[in-house]
């Protein structure tokens, strides 16, 4: 019996390659770049976008190697994968269903009513508001699409107006919030119902964290922040008309008031997926692949949460290249550290772009208390600062 095919929009993520291996018994994976440049194809794919040349290549592949599914491995190509499903009538979420998860403007239009969120505008509307004297004093300017805080800036009102005039870019201008903390929830929706929701808190807000270690501390049962975070996530998820997906959802907390930040239909980055697999037994990459292939998974209704405070922190790359990253064995020797995983091979160049996840290492940790977790994070950060300057 011939296995059904799935076209893969692959960005070279090792986590995806590892997770898809068990599915190869049921699905034949057709990687777009590899298939397009094979002798029979001999065409380069310009970009994962609905460009004429790219679509001509994919039309040809569909004619020669009929595929039923399109699988995405990154937030950057999620919308294009959905566009292809809509274009060819394939199984899985359509473009109109997925677009709000990849466009920050459409996200607030479509799902912003489900839970309180910061006000936002397109550039023309913000300029009109400023002319009327009703624009907020500080704002956050974001690209329409993107992740890891790349291209995101907090600006004063006039600075924002000058920036908009100078660039002419279509961006989202969002009212700035003075954060007490920033949380995120990661999990799985199946048959339109949340099956797994794991709430976590960042050790510092991701915006402005470039060059510093950004950690996620998973919140155990009994932590007072856990319930409100899960409730907020459930309200947002209930507004989403997609039956099966994996999500990374961000929440902004300011002096006791919770607001919806953003959501992506993907596993979280920067070691958070391996952390949830290690401590909660949830394989978000396998769930992500299965959801896109519409394959069944064992029914889950929640997870068993650890009793202590565990999580993961990145070891931030120095964009200047002055301080080398501490050796993995130095990090493993810190009490409370459970494991050390490799970070990005391009961490330094990503750090120069302002990415909040430009890490040389990913460190998993576990402690009995939140105080203990923060102590471990301080020791990890100190190990990076103590590395001798290479200049």
UniProtKB/TrEMBL annotation:
Entry keyword set: ATP-binding, Ligase, Nucleotide-binding
InterPro entries xrefs: ATP-dep_AA_Ligase (IPR052032), ATP-grasp (IPR011761)
Keyword Nucleotide-binding: yes
Single GO molecular function: ATP binding
UniProt KW Flavoprotein keyword: no
Domain ATP-grasp: 105-293
Name the record gives this protein: ATP-grasp domain-containing protein
């Amino acid at each position: 019996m011939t296995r059904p095919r799935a076209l893969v929009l692959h960005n070279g993520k090792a986590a995806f390659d590892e997770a898809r291996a068990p599915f190869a018994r049921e699905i034949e994976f057709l990687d777009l770049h590899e298939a397009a440049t094979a002798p029979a194809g001999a065409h380069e794919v310009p970009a994962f976008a609905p460009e004429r040349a790219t679509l001509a290549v994919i039309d040809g592949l569909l004619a020669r190697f009929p595929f039923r599914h399109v699988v995405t491995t990154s937030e950057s190509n999620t919308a294009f994968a959905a566009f292809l499903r809509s274009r060819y009538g394939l199984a899985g979420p359509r473009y109109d269903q997925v677009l709000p998860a990849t466009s920050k403007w459409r996200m607030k239009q479509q799902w912003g009513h489900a839970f309180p969120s910061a006000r936002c505008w397109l550039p023309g509307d913000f300029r009109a508001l400023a002319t009327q004297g009703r624009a907020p004093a500080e704002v956050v300017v974001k690209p329409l699409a993107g992740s890891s805080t790349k291209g995101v800036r907090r600006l004063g009102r006039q600075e924002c107006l000058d920036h908009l005039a100078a660039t002419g870019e279509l961006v989202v201008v969002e009212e700035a919030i003075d954060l007490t903390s920033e949380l995120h929830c990661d999990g799985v929706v199946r048959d339109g119902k949340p099956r797994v929701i794991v709430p976590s808190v960042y050790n510092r807000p991701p915006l402005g964290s470039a060059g510093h270690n950004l950690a996620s501390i998973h919140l155990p049962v009994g932590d007072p922040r856990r319930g409100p975070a899960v409730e907020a996530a459930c309200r947002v998820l209930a507004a989403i008309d997609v039956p099966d997906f994996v999500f990374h959802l961000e929440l902004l907390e300011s002096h006791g008031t919770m607001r919806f930040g953003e959501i992506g239909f993907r596993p979280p980055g920067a070691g958070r997926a391996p952390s949830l697999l290690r401590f909660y037994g949830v394989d978000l990459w396998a769930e992500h692949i299965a959801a896109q292939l519409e394959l069944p998974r064992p029914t889950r209704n929640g997870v068993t949460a650890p009793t202590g405070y565990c999580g993961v922190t990145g070891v931030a790359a120095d964009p200047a290249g002055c301080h080398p990253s501490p050796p993995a064995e130095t990090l493993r020797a810190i009490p409370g550290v459970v494991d050390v995983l490799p970070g990005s091979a391009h961490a330094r160049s990503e750090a120069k772009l302002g990415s909040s996840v430009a890490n040389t290492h990913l460190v998993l940790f576990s402690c009995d208390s939140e105080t203990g977790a923060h102590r471990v994070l301080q020791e990890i950060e100190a190990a990076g600062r103590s590395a001798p300057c290479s200049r």
